[in-house]
């Protein structure tokens, strides 16, 4: 009860209705880490049906990573959303998925937004820029996951177009909700938000110098010229957001199936692209602790994927404490009484 409830409903009546129907399950221990998702690679290749993915979960949460000989906990895919090459799926531990059966327990909505209009060419459509977002309510906390592909390019001022993309995605994204009197939810209205993907920010530095510092593994010096880091420090985009320390080589642009950056062996007619940290993970909100931030050495793309692990706290009503505070089941209680 650390955050005021945003609706104007009767908190006592809401609690009484919930406790009559169900008991909120105990919060499970922090799940073990899944180091590899190779077991779901076949599933990831399947096309998503956007029509049913627009609905709250409940009809499609039965795909489980399961192996009787594997001691790791079971995970359930509760939502998936795809827009051309941008894709998000949310998996939760089986015990958390059970929260869906509790009133106000677990619910999801997803939205996509393309930065290109209807007149986009087929070539640009294949490289669509925009975002896919998922809004997730877990007990009394709201989480949001945004995957985006921002404007590409290394010309002067390109970072300003990427900043504009971010603001446009935030402005245009709206989620349906059964909470807060059916008012649409925005990205900033969530308690914890994670934004990741090909953000496309580059390094403001001569190509020869970039490659020299990469060879020397001088990440701190390179970060000083990183566009996203500069825009964050200047408050021009993602104000108040955080990013973990980068202690790995730039993730872009590689020869496919190679550990060689494009341009190290110049070819005639080839565009000159300097190495850069295009692939990033940012977050904002209370109760978030980053445990790791790294890249993976998968060579099937010209990008190296990045990953991060977080410990995130969510708010759960303690019905026993609430009952003691209410004293009577049908009492009307104002939210501010419970504020710290």
From TrEMBL:
PANTHER family: TYPE I INOSITOL POLYPHOSPHATE 5-PHOSPHATASE 2, TYPE IV INOSITOL POLYPHOSPHATE 5-PHOSPHATASE 9. One of its GO terms (molecular function) is inositol-polyphosphate 5-phosphatase activity. Belongs to the inositol polyphosphate 5-phosphatase family. Residues 2-318 form the Inositol polyphosphate-related phosphatase domain. InterPro entries: Endo/exonu/phosph_ase_sf, IP5P_plant, IPPc. It comes from Salix purpurea. GO terms for biological process: phosphatidylinositol dephosphorylation. Keywords: Hydrolase. SMART domains: IPPc (SM00128). The keyword Lipid metabolism does not apply. This is TYPE IV INOSITOL POLYPHOSPHATE 5-PHOSPHATASE 9. The keyword Ubl conjugation does not apply. It holds the Pfam family Exo_endo_phos2.
